[in-house]
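TA notes, week 10

Several of you asked for a full example with nothing omitted. So below is the full record: C-alpha cells for the whole chain, then the designed sequence directly under it. When grading your own attempts, check the secondary structure regions first.
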C-alpha cells in the first residue's frame, strides 16, 4: 500500500463540495429556529453569521497555503502551537464530530426516505451508509462528483422554495414590518453560525487538490459567499410567506413556504432532503477519513490509518472505520442535541486554530496567501463570543 493520495480535484468541484457541506440538511429545519429568535430579520441574522464566520474561514485559507496537508486542524495546531499531542487530540475531535454529525444526518435522511417510501428503517440506514462508503472508497473525484450532483439537487429544491416564498402573499408579520430587536437578531445569528460550519472541511482535501496554495483559499471564500447568499434568500422567502409563530414552531419550515406559495404535496421536498442528507453524510465521511489519514502521519499509535489504496488512491482503512462508525451510530443514537454538541466542539477548534495562526504569523510572517494579523484575532474573538453565547443559552 502507498501513503500518497492522488491530486484530482479542481476549483469547481472543491467549491461545490464546500457549498454542499455547509448547506447540508440543516437548512431544512434551521430557518424556523432562527426566525423564532430574529423574527422577520432572520435574513440579517444569517448574513451576520456569515460575517462572523468569515475571519475564521480566512484563517483556514491562509493555513491551507502554509500547510497544505490532509489532517487540517491537527497539523495547524501541532505546528502553530508546537504541541503535537494537542494537534492529534484536535484531529481526533474533528473525526468524532464529523462521524457524529454524519450519523445524525444519515438517520434523518433515512427517516425522510422511509416517510415517502415504505422501507424498513434499519435496513435503509445500512444500505444508504454502505453505498456512500463504497463511493468514498472508489475515489475522491467520484465522491466529490456525486456530492456535486446532490448539491445541484439541493440548490434546485431551495430555488423552488425561494420562488414559492416570493409568489406567496406577504404574511401579516412582514406587512407589519416590526423594527429590529438586536438581541433577537444576535441570538438568531448564533444559531445561524452553526449553519456555516463546514468550510473547515475543505482544507482536509489539501493532498488531493491541484495547485492547493491557489485553489484552497479561493474555494473556501467562494463557498462561504455562495452559502451566505443562499441562506439570506431562503430566510427572506420563509419569513415573507409564513407567519412567524407557525414558522418557528415547525420542524419542516420550508414545506410551509412551499404550501403558502404553491399548495399541494410537499413529498418532493422530502426527497430533496434525502439528497441533502446523502450529500452531508458523504462529505463528512470523506473529510473524517482524510483527517484520520493525516493524524496517522503524526502518531505511531494511529499509523495504520496513514495508508492509501494503491488502486483507488483513497485512505481505505480510515474510510472503512469511519463508515462503520457512522452506520452504527446512526442505528444506535438519537439525533437530538447532536448538532449542538458538534457545533460547540468545532467552535473550540476554531478558537485553537485562530490562536495557532496568530502565533505562527508572529514567528513567520511570509505565506503564499497572507492576511493581516487582525483577521485571526477577529476570528478568535468571534469564536469565543459564539462559544460563550452557546453556553449561555
Amino acid at each position: 500500500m502507498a501513503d500518497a493520495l492522488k491530486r484530482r480535484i479542481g476549483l469547481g468541484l472543491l467549491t461545490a463540495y464546500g457549498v454542499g457541506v455547509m448547506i447540508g440538511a440543516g437548512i431544512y429545519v434551521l430557518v424556523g429556529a432562527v426566525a423564532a429568535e430574529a423574527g422577520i430579520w432572520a435574513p440579517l441574522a444569517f448574513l451576520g453569521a456569515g460575517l462572523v464566520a468569515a475571519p475564521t474561514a480566512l484563517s483556514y485559507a491562509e493555513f491551507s497555503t502554509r500547510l497544505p496537508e490532509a489532517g487540517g486542524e491537527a497539523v495547524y495546531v501541532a505546528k502553530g502551537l508546537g504541541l503535537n499531542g494537542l494537534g492529534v487530540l484536535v484531529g481526533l475531535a474533528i473525526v468524532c464530530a464529523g462521524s457524529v454529525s454524519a450519523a445524525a444526518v444519515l438517520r434523518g435522511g433515512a427517516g425522510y426516505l422511509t416517510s415517502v417510501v415504505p422501507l424498513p428503517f434499519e435496513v435503509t440506514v445500512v444500505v444508504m451508509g454502505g453505498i456512500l462508503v463504497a463511493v468514498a472508497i472508489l475515489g475522491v473525484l467520484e465522491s466529490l462528483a456525486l456530492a456535486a450532483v446532490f448539491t445541484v439537487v439541493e440548490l434546485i429544491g431551495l430555488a423552488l422554495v425561494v420562488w414559492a416564498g416570493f409568489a406567496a402573499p406577504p404574511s401579516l408579520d412582514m406587512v407589519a414590518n416590526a423594527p429590529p430587536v438586536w438581541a433577537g437578531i444576535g441570538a438568531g445569528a448564533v444559531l445561524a453560525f452553526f449553519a456555516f460550519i463546514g468550510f473547515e472541511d475543505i482544507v482536509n482535501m489539501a493532498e488531493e487538490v491541484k495547485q492547493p496554495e491557489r485553489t484552497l483559499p479561493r474555494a473556501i471564500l467562494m463557498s462561504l459567499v455562495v452559502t451566505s447568499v443562499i441562506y439570506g434568500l431562503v430566510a427572506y422567502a420563509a419569513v415573507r410567506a409564513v407567519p412567524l409563530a407557525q414558522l418557528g414552531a415547525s420542524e419542516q419550515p420550508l414545506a410551509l413556504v412551499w404550501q403558502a406559495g404553491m399548495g399541494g404535496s410537499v413529498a418532493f421536498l422530502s426527497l430533496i432532503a434525502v439528497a441533502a442528507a446523502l450529500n452531508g453524510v458523504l462529505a463528512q465521511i470523506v473529510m473524517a477519513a482524510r483527517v484520520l489519514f493525516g493524524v496517522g502521519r503524526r502518531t505511531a499509535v494511529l499509523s495504520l490509518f496513514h495508508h492509501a489504496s494503491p488502486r483507488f488512491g483513497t485512505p481505505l482503512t480510515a474510510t472503512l472505520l469511519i463508515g462503520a462508525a457512522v452506520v452504527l451510530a446512526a442505528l444506535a443514537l438519537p439525533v437530538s442535541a447532536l448538532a449542538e454538541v458538534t457545533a460547540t466542539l468545532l467552535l473550540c477548534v476554531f478558537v485553537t486554530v485562530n490562536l495557532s495562526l496568530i502565533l505562527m504569523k508572529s514567528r513567520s510572517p511570509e505565506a503564499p496567501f497572507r492576511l493581516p494579523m487582525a483577521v485571526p484575532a477577529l476570528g478568535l474573538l468571534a469564536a469565543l463570543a459564539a462559544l460563550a453565547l452557546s453556553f449561555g443559552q
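The longest helix spans residues 84-116. Use that as a sanity check on your answer.
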